[in-house]
Amino acid sequence: MNNPEMNMKFMQIAMKHLPDGKKFLDDKGIELNMEDLQPMLELLLNVMNEAYELGKEQAAEQTN
């Protein structure tokens, strides 16, 4: 799925939780800037898209 609207919603969710993730990494002594975090955000979006599709498939199966 490559739905720009859904990707924007997923990015908003990721950005909401980014400070917690950054704090976790900082507490572990891992310093990353936003440029370093970009590949991880893309990976997270891929995971969120797959989870969304799985939920959609399961919902469709339950209605049949």
β-strand amount: under 5%
Reported for the largest beta sheet, the result is: none
Distance between the termini: 22 Å
Cα-based radius of gyration, to the nearest Å: 15 Å
* SSE class: mainly alpha
Low-confidence stretches: none
Tally of domains: 1
Query: Percent of residues in helical segments?
Result: over 70%
- Can you write the helix and strand succession as a string? HH
Secondary structure: number of strands: 0
Q: Tell me, what's the shape?
A: elongated
Average of per-residue pLDDT values: 89
Number of DSSP helical runs: 2
Oligomer: single chain
Could you please describe the fold and organization of this structure?
- The structure is a single chain.
- With 64 residues, this protein is mainly α.
- It has two helices and no strands.
- Helix 1 (4-27) crosses helix 2 (34-63).
- The two termini are 22 Å apart.
- It holds the Pfam family ComZ.
- InterPro entries: ComZ.
